Amino acid sequence: MRDRTTQSQPLRRHVRDEIQRRILSGESLPGERLPQQSLARKLGVGQGTVRESLLELEWLGLVDSTDGLGIFVGTLGASRLIEAYEVREYLEGLAARRACGRVSKSDITALRNIASEILALSSQGKVEEMGAADRAFHLQIVNLSRNKMLMRLAEGYHVLGMAVRASRDPKVVHEKSISVLLKRSIRTCRMKPRSWPANM
Questions:
Q1: Which of 6, 23, 24, 107 is deepest in the core (most CB within 10 A)?
Q2: Which of the following CATH numbers is that of domain 4-73: 3.30.2000.30, 1.10.3720.10, 1.10.10.10, 2.40.37.20?
Q3: What is the pLDDT of residues 33-76, one digit of tens each?
């Protein structure tokens, strides 16, 4: 029989994702109180599940807890976003260095294809699809690092980044993606890559 904690993980993830969706879509506004009892009733789950989900969202930086008052939707101001992107800069740099000695030619080709897809989607005005492709590109670099802790930390800053991603200049998204792949990954690599495409 599976552990009750293991069984509750998909439900908690679903609740967390739904609350996260409401925050990022603007349905739940910055500073708004998130009463656990009300959320539990609306989502049809126990208060314990809601509490655990809110704790995860607090770790991700989307909600703030105030002693004696409750949990509120966080204010994603410039300072918090800058902090998130500072962390992203270092973590993705580390991920890129680790990936250098682990990626194959097919991995690089796949990343190139995603970067091209981002530009194509932006020219078609498909903002949501472009954002998804952009996230996939950066997360794939992290995944190629083969470091589980990096993958977990990456989730936090990517969630915060979703709040402003749609407003980014599409050309900047594409250029930054290419830069990460073809410049920083190579120049900051501490070991010789095992396999790079011949045309790089």
A1: 23
A2: 1.10.10.10
A3: 999 999 999 999 999 999 999 998 888 888 999 888 999 998 86
